[in-house]
UniProtKB/TrEMBL annotation:
It is an enzyme of class 6 (ligase). The keyword rRNA processing does not apply. Its EC number is 6.1.1.14. Its main location: cytoplasm. It catalyses: tRNA(Gly) + glycine + ATP = glycyl-tRNA(Gly) + AMP + diphosphate. Residues 565-668 form the DALR anticodon binding domain. It holds the Pfam family DALR_1. It comes from Pelagibacterium nitratireducens. One of its GO terms (molecular function) is glycine-tRNA ligase activity. This is Glycine--tRNA ligase beta subunit. The lineage of its organism: Bacteria, Pseudomonadati, Pseudomonadota, Alphaproteobacteria, Hyphomicrobiales. Belongs to the class-II aminoacyl-tRNA synthetase family. It comes from the Bacteria.
Length: 678
């Protein structure tokens, strides 16, 4: 079957956009193909710095013929309705429609619309230029006098279509001044000449000969493997950085890996600063000594060409730039060390955190106060927590953090230790930002926990107080991340912390509930179980999680499943009868009217269970309360097997409904089982 080959050849596409752009190209084209009736076997998308490429295999030569019956108005309908039907169906006269009958609706018109399939190449001639014109680049650009927009100037288009073993046809179309053809180009420097291609297989081979590796994942693997081998030969380990690897693979079409070095004197600078400097400025990888684990004074660079001098000039150029950048980092570090962190605090009075929430200095004061309140609740020393909170933002005015904002907190720890602060205080300065995401480490030291919670709670309560809340997908202040951070700090450290003490806004507490549901759902927990145990005033995150887990264990067992079924049956009966009677059933059970052994047994079991559940909940033994409910399974089953709830005697009926209400209310002490699915 025929195959499509499409390549959009341009000036350099930003590395961060390439992978997404390749997937967008595949989705746009394949969606349009399917919409036109062209079902395909497989599709693959690829990207290099100068091209997006797409192959679609197993396409039919033409779209299928179609036949559609379109229902119209009733016979005898007004002329206006008939005219609208004719226009929609593409008919010139009502005589071209057929009449069908319906027993209920009578006679009505039906238009039979038959369309002949179109050659696939004609369909592609429409789809491909439309895809390019509507491509979802965030910030496209125009060039020259044309009106075509693309992320960078588009230089050539390769578009061929045809079956294997035959010469494919060029899908002819124009975009601005560029006309499609069967010509592409190799590496900008090592093989810049035009290359004629036919279909995907020979296209890939031709590019390889022209020093272009089409697949970004293969380029990543080449870089990683060659870098690890170079490092191994020197007794070093590569510091793997997946983000940097992705970026570098998007900067080169023919990766050539080399090793450079820098002066050992720079190793006196904190290694994180060295790594950040080399990564940010030269897109190079750092290395560790395999035997000691310490940072080595060598780095890995990736060139986009095979140099005639074996890369000596390229390596020397990178070494020269890195030497200059590390000199700056060393200067920043040594200068920062000369200024005590406390002396930086007045500078925070000139830094606005938010127009409505004041300066960073005001924020630090709030965090310090909060940390002092939280410290005793998490086992932290109050004075240490206050000291760490006071210094938590003191590294923001430093030269190193000004140059590399991602080092905030970390540099504060280095400076604090060098200036004689307690280790736990220094650690808290670094860790109070954590966790920054779902894969980030959660602090476990008490002082760090206290300051991290204070930092996040201040952000959340502050922005809620000025009505700046996340809306839809927009969350410019990362408030969802802050709430999830609070949740992870509490859950991972098994903290019994009542958020209501710090969160007075009901909407904010509800926001925590929503984030907790997201967190538990992501870990595989059923959302309905969260809804069942949570109430509008639930403020103990760990308690909620424990209850969800205990409820999940109950409902996973046969007793729990049967008990839930009994609850649902009781609740449904009560709902129906209360609606019919216009009253609620919540009166005490009349023991004298319990006429059967089964209802007597259930009443006694409910009474025992209620007393036991209340006692266990007062002792925070939720799992025990759950196990008590499980004991109700047998008497509930026996009751529904032998007892008719709607007894002819109104008094007995009412007493039995009160019995079911007692069962429902006792179970509601533990969870709202009405919100549990199943």
């Amino acid at each position: 079957m025929p195959e499509l080959l499409l390549e959009l050849f341009s000036e350099e596409i930003p590395a961060r956009l390439q992978r997404r752009a390749a997937e967008d190209l595949k989705k746009s084209v394949t969606d349009a193909l399917v919409e036109k009736g062209l079902v395909y076997e497989s599709a693959g998308a690829f990207a290099t710095p100068r091209r997006l490429a797409l192959t679609v295999t197993g396409l039919p030569a033409a779209s299928p013929d179609t036949r559609e019956e379109r229902k119209g108005p009733k016979v005898g309908a007004p002329q206006q309705a008939l005219d609208g039907f004719l226009r929609a169906a593409g008919l010139s006269s009502i005589d071209q429609a057929t009449v069908q009958s319906d027993e209920k609706k009578g006679d009505f018109y039906v238009a039979v619309i038959e369309k002949k399939g179109a050659p696939a190449i004609e369909i592609l001639r429409d789809i491909l230029p439309a895809t390019v014109k509507s491509f979802p680049w965030g910030k496209p650009m125009r060039w020259g006098t044309g009106r075509l927009e693309w992320v960078r100037p588009l230089r050539a288009i390769t578009a061929t279509f045809g079956p294997e073993g035959e010469e494919p046809d060029v899908i002819e179309f124009e975009l601005g001044t560029v006309t499609s053809g069967n010509t592409t180009y190799g590496h900008r420097f090592m093989a810049p000449d035009a290359i004629k291609v036919r279909r995907f297989d020979d296209y890939v081979q031709a590019l390889e000969k022209a020093r272009v590796v089409l697949d970004i994942d293969r380029r990543k693997q080449i870089i990683r493997t060659d870098a690890e081998q170079l490092a191994f030969a020197q007794g070093l380990d590569l510091i793997v950085d997946e983000g940097l690897l992705e970026e570098v693979a998007g900067l080169v079409e023919w990766p050539v890996v080399m090793m450079g070095s820098f002066d050992e004197a720079f190793l006196k600078v904190p290694e994180e600063a060295i790594i950040a400097t080399i990564r940010a400025n030269q897109k190079c990888f750092c290395l560790r000594d395999a035997s000691t684990g310490k940072l080595a004074n060598k780095f890995i660079l990736t060139s986009n060409l095979i140099a005639e001098d074996d890369g000596k000039t390229i390596v020397a150029g990178n070494e020269r730039v890195i030497r200059a950048r590390l000199s700056d980092a060393k200067f920043f570090y040594e200068t920062d060390l000369e200024t005590p962190l406390l002396d930086n605090l007045p500078k925070l009075e000139d830094v606005v955190f938010h127009a409505k929430l004041g300066t960073q200095a005001a924020r630090v004061a709030r965090i310090e106060k909060l940390a002092a309140e939280i410290a005793p609740l998490v086992g932290a020393d109050v004075e240490d927590a206050k000291r760490a909170a006071k210094l938590s933002k003191a590294d923001l005015p430093t030269g190193m953090v000004g140059e590399f904002p991602e080092l905030q907190g970390l540099m504060g720890r280095y400076y604090a230790l060098a200036q004689g602060e307690k280790p736990e205080v220094a650690t808290a300065i670094e860790e109070h930002y954590k966790p920054l995401g779902p894969s980030d480490r959660v602090p476990t030291e008490p002082v760090s926990i206290a300051v991290a919670l204070a930092d996040k709670l201040d952000i959340l309560t502050g922005f809620w107080s000025i009505d700046e809340k996340p809306t839809g997908s927009k969350d410019p202040y990362a408030l969802r991340r802050a709430a999830l951070g609070v949740i992870r700090l509490i859950v991972d450290n098994r903290l019994r912390l009542a958020l209501g003490r710090f969160v007075s806004d009901v909407d904010l507490l509800s926001f925590f509930h929503d984030r907790l549901k997201v967190s538990l759902r992501d870990s595989g927990t059923r959302h309905d179980l969260v809804d069942a145990v949570i109430s509008s005033d639930s403020d103990d995150i760990l308690q909620i999680v424990s209850r969800v887990n205990a409820l999940g264990s109950l409902l996973a067992a046969e007793d729990g499943k049967a008990l839930l079924a009994g609850y649902k049956r009781a609740a449904n009966i009560l709902t129906a009868e209360e609606k019919k009677d216009g009253r609620a059933y919540a009166d005490p059970i009349d023991a004298a009217r319990l006429s059967t052994p089964e209802e007597q047994s259930l009443a006694a079991a409910i009474a025992r269970a209620r007393t036991d559940v209340i006692a266990r909940l007062e002792n925070d033994d939720y799992a025990g309360a759950i196990s008590v409910l499980a004991s109700l399974r047998t008497p509930v089953d026996a009751f529904f097997e032998s007892v008719l709830v709607n007894d002819p005697d109104p008094a007995i009926r009412a007493n039995r409904l009160n019995l079911l209400a007692s069962l429902r209310d006792t179970m509601h002490l533990v969870a709202d089982f009405g919100k549990v699915a199943g």
